[in-house]
Design a protein that fits this description.
mainly alpha, 80% helix, 9 helices
Length: 254
């Protein structure tokens, strides 16, 4: 006779309700997925800042040896990039939040005006997940008795009303992460002597890209060496192209 499945203890149930880990190595804190997404977005924003401003300053350094134009172009790229990233993230997250708010409002209206149809829909959703009709009905009944709106938001819309994204936070995070990344190539191109500027900047940028690639891979549980290699090769190619263009046009128009 097969062993009876082990039932959760009272402590495990309480931990699951509070969003804590039920055993080591599995964090279930509320908003954990959201926080990981923020971290990934921050790493990608910093990576964009590194690559964008590095391409600008290396390109301008190929055209002129004067620090003034290099600094001006790099600073303009930093500010423009941070503003663009911030606005883009604000619009994107605002649209997502508006859509989720509209869905939440509609679900409340449907639960108030057609509760029987909504209950049948919930049962069908759990049957589609693999539960028997009887079990699906029991699960739907218990969840509906506890909190019908939360049950539908989770099973039907996959929305957590307590973890909806903030457009302002998203915009600020994008601007800050881009700026942090962009400062590195700007400093690297300005501090060294003239003959070492481009080389020092390229080395600093490729090291930074390797670090951001490793961090991004770790957060995504992906292959770190592959992620690092992609970023380093892509960054090196981009810098080579911008420097060649700056040198060609600087010589032609100088």
């Amino acid at each position: 006779m097969a062993d009876e499945p082990e039932m959760p203890s009272a402590e495990q149930v309480a931990a699951a309700e509070s969003g804590e880990a039920t055993h080591a190595g599995e964090p279930h804190a509320p908003g954990m997925a959201g926080r990981l997404n923020w971290l990934r977005a921050g790493v990608l924003g910093a990576n964009d800042g590194i690559v964008s401003v590095a391409g600008i300053v290396v390109g301008v350094a190929g055209a002129t040896t004067s620090r003034g134009p290099i600094f001006t172009a790099g600073l303009a790229g930093l500010v423009a990039g941070a503003v663009s990233m911030s606005l883009g993230e604000y619009v994107s997250v605002s649209s997502q939040r508006d859509a989720e708010a509209a869905e939440l409002k509609q679900e409340k209206r449907e639960l108030a005006t057609m509760p029987d149809e909504e209950f049948a829909e919930l049962v069908a959703l759990y049957e589609a997940k693999g539960l028997s009709a009887r079990t699906a009905e029991q699960v739907a009944a218990e969840l509906t008795a506890n909190d019908p709106l939360a049950a539908h938001l989770d099973a039907e819309l996959h929305i957590d009303p307590h973890d909806m994204p903030s457009p302002l936070q998203a915009a600020a995070a994008s601007a800050i992460s881009f700026t942090v990344g962009a400062v590195l190539p700007l400093i690297a191109i300005l501090l060294p002597p003239q003959g070492w500027r481009v080389l020092v900047t390229i080395v600093a940028v490729l090291i930074a890209l390797a670090i951001t690639g490793a961090v991004s891979a770790r957060l995504s549980k992906a292959n770190a060496s592959r992620a690092v290699l992609r970023l380093v090769i892509g960054g090196a190619f981009g810098l080579a192209v911008t420097y060649a263009i700056g040198s060609a046009f600087g010589t032609a128009l100088g």
